[in-house]
Amino acid sequence: MVTIKAPAAYYNEPGILERSGQYIRSLGHYALIIGGPTALSIAGERLNTSLLAAGIRTEIKTFAGQCTVEEIEAYTSIARGLNVELIIAVGGGKVLDLSKAVAEDARLPIVTIPTIPATCAAWSALTVLYDPHGKAAGYRPLLRSPELVLADTALLAQAPRRYLAAGIGDTLVKWHEFAVNLNGNAGSVALRSSVATAKLALDILERHATDVYNEVGQQAYQPDAAFIEVTDAIIWLAGLVGSIQDGSVHAAIAHGLHDSLTRIEDTHHSLHGEKVAFGLFTQWVLEGKQGAELEKLVSWLHELDLPITLSQLGITGDINQNVAAIAEGLALREGAAEQLNFAVTIEAVQKAIVQADALGQKIHSGLSQKVIV
Questions:
Q1: In a domain, 275, yes or no
Q2: What is the C-alpha separation between 230 and 213, in angstroms, rounded?
Q3: Which site from 76, 119, 156, 247 is most exposed, i.e. has the minimal number of CB atoms within 10 Å?
Q4: Which of 205, 260, 207, 264 minimizes the C-alpha distance to 237?
Q5: What's the pTM?
């Protein structure tokens, strides 16, 4: 059996926030808005004005913590107590992930409005769980994607460009992370579909990501076609990659290393896509990439200001101890490593992290010749 989970509609265009009410009203007329404090301060007034004009009453609750099982239960109780007809999530990945799980538990439709282009959380049928201290606590597959995704490119372009870089990092990982599994599972049409979608996203990023990243943040910047394509890759295509499933197992090394990194408190200031990017760097070393090929790939991460050293992730102190903890914390699904044509043992991962950090330090310090993608 193959399942493909996707929103009923996805909009990615400037000014959609001001017109949001006309798209949302078909889902209900009494909404619980869950949003981050910063997101609501930026987008809340325009959203609420449009909703009220469309005859939609709202209750607003802020969320600024970790997406934990306990927080999901608490906000689900709020939604049930208010007897709302739908959920509207406004903000970054943790707010969107929490709200999707709340909507599923309360049996309500959900609209996601991302305010930063940092992940595919607005699209995906998945909630990433953490513990109260910010450590990864697993994944919760959801029955469906949000009913409606409203991505306002004018709003996304206003976000600090660090979030854009993180979104680019999280997206370019997808092809590299999925494609290596074809070695042992080339017969899976679902996997091949995911790889093809991820390749489309990667092609877009290779054409536009660096220029868009350099332009965003400049005074009076207005999102253009290239920005829209890049954010489509981050939200839509990356979200679709993980939404095509046939039950087969694949290894997600970069994301597994992300989860392990979250268990080191020094990394908690780093964004999801930043940790994933370093995880991908480590995967490249595990794969045996080296020389000019590896430097070219890593230089691209460096141009996007993504971390290519352990110190850029915030890791200080006993490096050997931290490297050992990261490697030991990498957990792949049972049977996943068998899909690969390279070893992913604790010892191999430790060695790869050390090698990646050493090369990253050279590139970061300018000792290695910069290779432009």
A1: yes
A2: 10
A3: 247
A4: 205
A5: 0.94
